[in-house]
Design goal:
With 399 residues, this protein is mainly alpha-helical. Helices cover 48% and strands 5% of the residues. A three-stranded antiparallel sheet has the order 1-2-3.
Length: 399
C-alpha cells in the first residue's frame, strides 16, 4: 500500500488519496449526523478548514503547509488516514519534524524552493528549527480543535501532547533610545537644501520619520496608505480632530489620532511637493510620494530602503563625530522601519501614555503585547539597585 501512495507526494490542491486511506472510516471520525461539514473525507475537511483563511495569503500559505505535511506523513509514512492519527502517532511526528526522513522523499533537492506545480517540489526544504517546530504544532492544534468543534473528529490527539511551560515574552529591544532618536532627527535637519532634489529628499526624510514615529505604523501600512486616509471630525469640545485611517495585520481597519504636530508636518511635506496644504478625503495620492514617475504607492521594499537610508546616513554622520560614537552608529546600522514602530510604542509607554491607548493606536490585539514596550520601570530599577545595593568592601563607598 505504501508503494502505491508514494507517487502522491504532491500539493493538496492536486492530491488524490486512495479510498482506503481517505478517512471516510477514520477511527477518530465524529458521528456523521453531528458534523457541521459537508466533507466526508479528510482532504475535503482540511480544505474546509483552510477556506477560513483564503483572504489572508501569508496565513493561508502557512496553515496549508502544516496541514499538508501532516496529511502526507500520515498517508505515506504511516499508511493510515489522517482521521485515524493517535497521540502516539503525533509523538512520532514531532520527532519527524526535527529531521524529515527519508530526505529523498520529503526534502527538496539541495534545500531549494520550487513552485508547487514543479515535480521537484517537496513538503520540506530541510529540518525545521525549534521555533518552526513549535509553530507547526500550534497551527496543527488549532486545526484539530476546529475539526472537533465542527463535529468531523471525535477528539483532538494534539491536546494530549506535553506542552512546555510558556516563557514570558521578552521585552522589546529593537527600538531606539530617546537620545539615539534625537541624533537621527539632528541628522535629518542638517541635510543640505541647496538643490530641488536635496530639498525633496530632506522633506521625505522628515515626513517618513515623523509618520512612522508619531503613528507607530507598520511598513505595509505606510507603503499602502493614501493621503485621502486622513480625515477630520468634530470632537465633543467642538474642535476639529484629525485622524488617519489604516488597514493593518489581518486586514483589520483602525483609526489613529493625528496630532496637530503631525498635520503641520503633513502640510510641510505637501507644500514641498507642490501640493495643496491639506488632502481631500477622496485623494488617491500615496502617503509617501515617489521622487519621479507616476504618483503611485511605493513598494514595501522601497519604504524599507528609504528608512534604512536614513539610519545609514545618520550612522555615517555619527562615526564622523569620533570613535566614541561607533557603538551608537552600529546600532543605527541594524535599525529598520519596524524599529521605528517599536520606538513609537516604547517612548509612549515610558512617557506614561495609557497602555490601552497605545494598544489601540498600534493595532495590537492584547495588552500583553503592548506591555512589552515598558522600559522606564527597568531603568529606574537599575538605578535604584546600583545606588542602594553595594558591597562597600572599604567601608567608605557609602553615599
Amino acid at each position: 500500500m505504501k508503494n502505491t501512495v508514494l507517487a502522491t507526494i504532491q500539493p493538496v490542491e492536486s492530491l488524490v488519496v486512495p479510498s482506503s486511506l481517505d478517512g471516510r472510516d477514520g477511527s477518530n471520525r465524529g458521528v456523521a449526523e453531528n458534523s457541521q461539514l459537508a466533507a466526508d473525507n479528510d482532504l475535503d475537511a482540511l480544505r474546509a478548514w483552510l477556506s477560513n483563511y483564503a483572504d489572508t495569503k501569508t496565513t493561508f500559505d502557512n496553515y496549508r503547509k502544516e496541514a499538508e505535511r501532516l496529511l502526507l506523513w500520515a498517508v505515506v509514512q504511516l499508511g493510515k488516514p489522517f482521521s485515524s492519527l493517535t497521540h502516539e502517532d503525533l509523538l512520532l511526528y514531532k520527532t519527524f519534524l526535527t529531521d524529515p526522513q527519508p530526505a529523498s522523499r520529503w526534502v527538496s533537492a539541495s534545500g531549494g524552493k520550487y513552485a508547487r506545480s514543479d515535480e521537484r517540489w517537496r513538503p520540506f526544504n530541510g529540518p525545521l528549527s525549534p521555533a518552526s517546530q513549535r509553530q507547526a504544532l500550534i497551527i496543527l492544534n488549532a486545526m484539530f480543535t476546529w475539526l472537533v468543534n465542527a463535529g468531523y473528529l471525535r477528539g483532538n490527539p494534539m491536546a494530549l501532547l506535553r506542552q512546555r511551560a510558556k516563557r514570558s515574552a521578552p521585552r522589546v529591544t529593537r527600538y531606539l533610545s530617546t537620545s539615539l532618536w534625537d541624533e537621527v532627527k539632528v541628522w535629518v535637519e542638517q541635510l543640505p537644501l541647496e538643490s530641488e532634489a536635496e530639498r525633496k529628499y530632506h522633506a521625505r526624510c522628515r515626513w517618513l520619520t515623523t509618520l512612522f514615529y508619531l503613528q507607530g505604523m507598520r511598513i505595509s501600512e505606510v507603503a499602502g496608505g493614501r493621503m485621502g486616509d486622513f480625515f477630520r471630525r468634530l470632537g465633543a469640545d467642538g474642535q476639529d480632530q484629525w485622524w488617519l485611517e489604516t488597514v493593518g495585520k489581518g486586514d483589520k481597519a483602525r483609526i489613529v489620532p493625528a496630532s496637530p504636530e503631525l498635520i503641520a508636518e503633513l502640510r510641510r511635506y505637501r507644500i514641498a511637493n507642490g501640493l495643496p496644504a491639506l488632502p481631500t478625503r477622496a485623494e488617491e495620492l500615496p502617503l509617501i510620494l515617489p521622487f519621479k514617475g507616476t504618483a503611485r504607492c511605493l513598494s514595501r521594499s522601497a519604504v524599507h530602503d528609504a528608512i534604512k537610508g536614513i539610519f545609514g546616513g545618520a550612522a555615517v554622520w555619527l562615526r564622523d563625530k569620533g570613535p566614541e560614537f561607533a557603538d551608537r552608529a552600529d546600532e543605527l546600522d541594524r535599525a529598520s522601519a519596524h524599529w521605528l514602530r517599536h520606538t513609537a510604542g516604547s517612548h509612549q509607554a515610558d512617557g506614561g501614555v495609557d497602555l490601552r491607548t497605545i494598544r489601540d493606536n498600534l493595532g495590537h490585539v492584547s495588552l500583553n503585547t503592548t506591555s512589552l514596550y515598558l522600559h522606564a520601570e527597568d531603568d529606574e530599577r537599575h538605578r535604584e539597585t546600583v545606588d542602594r545595593h553595594r558591597m562597600n568592601w572599604n567601608g567608605n563607598d557609602k553615599k
